[in-house]
Every structure is written in structure tokens, then in C-alpha cells.
Amino acid sequence: MAECWLKTNRRALCLGTIIPAVIFLLGLGIFSWRWPEWSLITSITRILGGSMMAFGALMVTFLLAGMFRPRVAYKEGNLLLYLRDGPPIEVPIEIVEVFFRGQGPSHVGQGAVSEAETSNIVIRLAEKAEEWHKVQVKPALGEWCEGYITLRGAWCQPIDREALEHLNSKLVLTKRQLKAEQEKSAVA
Fold first, then answer.
1. Gap between the Cα atoms of 136 and 23, Å rounded
2. Domain that holds residue 28
3. Of 10, 47, 63, 146, whose CB count within 10 A is highest?
4. pLDDT tens-digit profile of 66-85?
């Protein structure tokens, strides 16, 4: 089981469920409406209502599942970064150097809203780990370039001093534990 180091922004995902929930309810209303007589129109509207219900339910389920995915986690010597659909990106913890605060565009919405500034978390990786200097991620969630990983703050729990201290203390503690385990197994 992975240990959560940084949670996702549950408020944003919760707000995102409103439109799919409305689509589901409209579909339910169309599907269950008492039509005067059974006809082709009735069949088409029921299919439309059922499709709307399925789409709305699928989107709500997807968004609710995303609420419980961490943004950053740790498991068995790897930092797990949830920056794209599917499984997390597993980065060896020994190449992770530090977490620090950054500033950048939020990438939320379109136009002026998209260019609004937000606090970000930046993860610096070791220079020697060149194979980890560029990885493809979902642009709305972050950016990965030249050994720096930027986690967009709009999609993380609130980024404050305590969150950064928590991340860096977890990093130091985990690296110390791994080093102690390696030394212990080398002696044995």
C-alpha cells in the first residue's frame, strides 16, 4: 500500500461532479417520463435518457475515484507521481533531492482564468539521473522538464509551509531508512 505524501485537490474535483450529476438527473428524467404512447419517438428518447444517465454516472464515478488518488505518494523505494491518467510514474527516491515552492500559471479553465497564477510544488531531481530529466505528463496537472517536476497547485491540497516541510521531512526520513536498511543488509 502506498503512503500518501500529498493529497489531490478534492474541492476542485467535487465541483467538477456538478455538471455530470445534472446530466445524469436530466437523463433520468427523460428516461422515466411517462410518454403518451409507445412509439419510435418514445424509444429514441429513452435511449437518449439512458445514454445521458450512463455518461453522467461514468463521469461522476471517474471524478469521485480521482478524489482518493494522491498527487504524490511513496511505495517501496519509489516516489509515485500521479501526473497522468493510468498508473503513477515511479521515480526512484534516491534521485529526488528536494521539494520547494514555485509560482506559475494555473492551467485551469480558458483565457484569462487559465493564465491566473498559482503556487506550485517543484521537485528537483539529481542531475546525474538524465533518463529522468524529461517525462511526458498531463499539462493541466504538471510539467516535467530538465530534471524539475512542477505540480500545479490548483490540483493539489493547499500548498503552504507545513505541506513543504512535511514533504521534505518525509523525503529525508525515507532516504535515511533506506540507507540504514542497505547498510544492514550489506553487513549481514
1. 32
2. 8-67
3. 63
4. 788 899 999 999 999 999 98
